[in-house]
Amino acid sequence: MCEHNFDLFITVDKKLQYQQNLKDLPIIICVLCAYDNRRETLQKLIPKLFDRIAKGNLEKVIEISE
């Protein structure tokens, strides 16, 4: 993943940051937090994700929730 110049990894795995050592990865992890993982539900979080990215100064792990 990192060798292909990705800057952001989007997941719904809320425990990823506790299961993996993320501090050495050169990417930002974005966790979409919703009550289910259906496309219709997650799609509502995308504008919030874009707004957060536009603000800049992103932490290593960011959470986007409803």
What this model shows, in words?
The termini are far apart. This protein has helices at 16-19, 39-43, 46-55, and strands at residues 8-11, 28-33, 61-65. The mean pLDDT is 85. Helix 1 (16-19) links the parallel strand 1 (8-11) and strand 2. It has one domain (2-65). The protein contains three helices and three strands.
End-to-end span in angstroms?
Answer: 28 Å
Shape: globular
The major beta sheet can be summarized as: 3 strands, parallel
Structural class assignment? alpha/beta
The H-and-E topology, N to C, reads as EHEHHE
Helices and strands, with pairings:
Blueprint: E1 8-11, H1 16-19, E2 28-33, H2 39-43, H3 46-55, E3 61-65
Parallel strand pairs: 1-2, 2-3
Structure, briefly:
This protein has helices at residues 16-19, 39-43, 46-55; strands spanning 8-11, 28-33, 61-65. With 66 residues, it is of the alpha/beta class.
Essential attributes:
single chain; alpha/beta; three-stranded parallel sheet; 3 strands; 29% helix; 23% strand; globular
